Amino acid sequence: MRLAIALALVAVATAAWGDLETHSVGGGNPQGPAWEPAKDALIKWSQLPDLEGNALASQLATDYPFDARAADDFECVDGTPIVGVEWWGDYWNPGEPPYADYFVIRFYSDVPGPPFSRPGDLLYEEDCLVYSEDPTGGLYHYEQDLTLPFEQEAGEIYWISIQAVHLFFTGSQWGWLECLPEHYWNDEAVMVFPELGVPEWTTASLVLGEYAELAFVLYGEVFSPVESTTWTSVKAMFR
Question: How far apart are CA 238 and CA 27, in angstroms?
């Protein structure tokens, strides 16, 4: 298992500030059989999870000044809209969750480098109130149908950001899990975390000291949740 590298924290008066971290140690489980997609869904993009990777903080706490956000880029190949999203994450510090109140999914335009590519204009935002959350092997797997499709143009690069919303003092930190190195594409993930001195989109390597990209799958056409029989196969990769 790789050790998490915490960002140097600014000295403050509260103990809670000392608990803030930019990412956690991942599940540390061995790689398993191939992932299986949601049934009868067109896969538009996939960056599958690194089960020995870390989770980058991406959470808004409504009871504390804590607004971390992570994002990663992808390409629209066929020009069809995105109608469903799948992703992986983890809870840590101070410990066991309650579950997130909800998630916010955002899509942005692309701003190419130099100095590095990053999200541009906000193009789409949805509060995910009826998401599915399944704990497996110490990590968490999520699915969400979008209320309105996210329309795209073929050949364009976009950014996706997924942020948990839940309390800090009565909950814990949530992070978005890294993807497998062989699924890295284009540029690395970026983060915003004003409370830790990162007020604008900044590459993960500058924030964390190491390269990172994030785990997510984008679906087109009709998105069907994973049935329990299919999910059994997905669980196998977390053992």
Answer: 8
